[in-house]
Here is the input.
Amino acid sequence: MAEIRWTEESVVWLRDIHDYISRDNPIAANEVVSGIFDRAQGLVQFPQLRHKYRDEPDGEIRVLLFGHYRIAYLLKSADDIDILGVFHGALDIDEYLP
Here is the structure.
């Protein structure tokens, strides 16, 4: 079974998303962040079924969708996944991925 690790940067993105939404609706903020986390946990079973964004020396960067958000992750192997960031769909993901 795959191990999912959230990078420090991805945790910052989640916190920023939560803080932004919670200004207007704290309950919705918790639901969105929980939904993003739960969706990412689904990668444990099927990490390769998502959109392949590009190849890297360390593995493949893939993108998982959740509502208006894109969860970028590095698939190092079927058992080794790093969540790189969580991006709103309106953002240009190329500006944020290494």
Observations:
- The first helix runs from residue 8 to 22.
- Residues 3-90 form a domain with the YaeB-like fold fold (CATH 3.30.2310.20).
